[in-house]
Amino acid sequence: MIDVVSTAVVHGFATQLVSVEAHMSSGIPQINVIGLADQTIREAKERLVIALSEQGIKLGNRKYIVSLNPTDIKKQGGHLDLPIAIALLKASNLLPKSNYKIGALAGMNLSGQLTETNEIFSLLNVLVEEGCDYIIIPKSANCINKFFKNVPLLGLNHLSEVIEFLSNEDSNLPMAYAKWVRESEKEEGFLTELNLSHESKKDHDQVELDFAHVKGQELAKRAIMIALAGHHHLLMYGPPGTGKSMLASRIPSVQQALGDKGHYEYLSMRSRAGYPLNFSDKVKEPFRMPHSGVSSSAMLGGMQANMLGEAPLAHRGVLFLDEMPEFKRDVIEGLRGPLETGRIFLSKTHYKGEIPANFILVATANPCPCGYHGFSEKCNCSERDIRRYFSKLSGPILDRFDLKIEVAFKEDALEERYERGEKQNIQVDNPSHVSSSNLSSNEILQAISRVRKIQKDRYGDEEIHNGNFRVKRLGLVV
Question: Which of 161, 176, 219, 270 could form a disulfide with 156, with the two C-beta atoms 3.0–4.6 Å apart?
C-alpha cells in the first residue's frame, strides 16, 4: 500500500487539495515528478537529494515516480518540497507506514531547513477540511496558530526533526504538538513583530496625517465621515488645489481595525496572491490608491491564475481613485460589478473565479481637463473637450456614487469664521451633528465607530451598513 501525503496548491482564485504519492521500482536511477508540476516543483528533486544526503540519507540507485493528484490541474509552489520528501522516504522504506493522515506545507533549502511561503495561510483550510490528523508547517510560521487554534498544526524547524518525528509518530505526536503550542504562545509577540510587512509600516506612517491639519473644507470632511460610517461611495469634484487629494490621503487615519473575520479574509487573500502578511493583532482596513495608468487586469485581477487586482485588495476597505476621469474607460467600467454586488466574476481561458471585492469607492475629479471650468477665468477648454473628458464616467458609474460633493476654493460661511479666528467643536456624542470645525482624525474615528455600532445593532450583522443594506439582503454580497 502506498502512503499518501496531503498538501494543497493555489488553483485560479481557489485552493485545491493535492495528494502526493511516491513509488520505488527497479530501473534507471532517477526521480520523475508527474502531474502537471511547474519548474519550481520539478527542481525540487535536486534540492531534496542534497538535503537528504546532508542528513546522511541516500535514496539508493532506484527509479522513483512521484505523482501529484489530481493530475489535470497545474501545480506550483515551493511548499511542496516537504510532502515530496516525506513521500520519497516512505517509498524507500526509510520511514514506517503512517497510522495518521499526514498534511505538509513547507519548502526546504539544501541543508534541510524548513522554509515558509506566503501561500501557507490560505492553503491550511483545505487540509483541515480533508481531515488531516496533523499538518506539518515550518516553526517560523507559528503566528498562524492564533488563527487556527483548534487545528492540529505541528511546527518543526528541520528535515531531521521531521524524520525523527515520523519514525515514531504514535508516541511523538501528543507530546510534540503540546510542546509546540506552548512555544508558539511564548514566542508569538516576537514573531508578530518579525512578520510585519512593509505595507503595514507604510500604513503606520499614513496615520500621522491628521484631518486636524486641514483648514476648512468642513463639508468634505463631513462627507468622508458619512461615507466611511455608512459604506457609501463618494465623489469629490472641484478645481485643483482645493484639497481633494489631501483630504483623501488622510482617510487611513480614520479607518477602523479589522475584526477577526475581516482580518482572516485579508490574510487569506493576500496569502493566495503571494503578498507579505501582517499577523499583528490590529490591522486597519485596507486603503488602496492605484495610479491612473493602471490596466484592467491590474485593477480587477486575472492576468495570471492567482493574480489579485487593486479592487479585491481593497476588500473591506477603501479604493481611492485620484482624478478618476484620467483612468482608462475599461478600468472604470470594470468596477460596475463590484460596486453593485461586492464581488468580481472573472472568466479566463483556463480558469474561472469569483473574488470578494466589497469596498468603499472614493474618487476625485476636476470639472474639465485644465481643472478650472466654472471656477476661474483661466479655463480655455472647449465644450467638446469637457464632454470628451467626462465621457469616461458613464451614467451607471455616476449613479453608484451615493455622495457627490463640490470641493471649492472657499466655503464662505466657514472660511469667514476661520478668518475671524472663531472655532466651533463638533458634538461627538451626536454623530448627526452637522456643525463642525477643525475636527481631528481621532474625533472623526470615534463618530464613525459609534455610527457603525448603531448599524450593527440595527441589522444584526457587522457587514451590513446603510450603503449596502439592499444588496446584502438580496443575497448579492456574501
Answer: 161
